[in-house]
Amino acid sequence: MPGGTVWIDLYDPSPEEVAQVEAETGLRIPTRAALSEVETSSRLRRLKGGLSLSTPMITFEQADSQLKPLGFLLTKDHLVTVRFHDLRAFGSAAKRLTEDEGGDPAVIFTILLEELVDSLADSLEEMAVDLDSLSSRIFDFDVRGPSAKRLEEPPPRRRDLALRRILRAISRRGKVLGKIRASLLGLERIMPFVSSACEGLELTDDGRFETIRRDIESLDEFETRLAENVQFLLDAALGLINIEQNNVFRVLTVVSVVGVPPTLIASMYGMNFKHMPELDWAYGYPYALTLIFLSAIIPIVYFRIRGWF
Questions:
Q1: 3-state DSSP call for residue 74?
Q2: Other CB atoms closer than 10 Å to residue 114's CB: what's the count?
Q3: Predicted TM-score (pTM) of this structure
């Protein structure tokens, strides 16, 4: 590495790269398994002359979200970051350092935290827009295309497919919010630990740390509101599904009720008794058919007037 290197960014490093950095800096680079530990004592540790920090961080790869570990080794002379996925915050931080920021390890670490928080804020803002669009789809549920007739009702299969898609969309956004919350929680734990352990590391810009902490708190509240919105949309979608199911059961109920009187009449006149008043009547057969027809039509008209279908 060039002399005077301050920030070393290990992106999915090979064993040879890890060995080289350890030889150059004298630091022990944690493995991916070590960075994935969930105990606070494993994620936030004091080193000889520095700090070892790790947090899960959300990443979006191929339209899917994943949580992967992100590690920091901070000393007076070096900042080593260990990551296993691409994060746009690192590109933004490198650009800021190139343009107008200094090269002190503590300053670089602070810039990285700022960019990570800003990246999570952008993700939450995008999520808010997605949830607003999803809310319109749910409360204005209509799968008819623009060329369909106004009174044309979509077939049940299309309506079921639309509802399935809505539920999948809610599920995806709920999972993303959970991973964003895990990322915010990891950063939120880092802030007080670094502030209390910064003696000798020249982390003197407490104002920037306090600003980052307040930003994380505000994002945490914003994420909570979005999570409540997701739960509300899920309840609304389930309510919509219940309405669709009730419509089906209502139709089945009407059909069953309409079929009972004709069945009763047909079964009565189908009895093989010798002495039946209508047996020798010339108009007995049309009379029975008329009764069957009227007994089916009258319930349909009644239910139609009542607005059942």
A1: strand
A2: 19
A3: 0.77
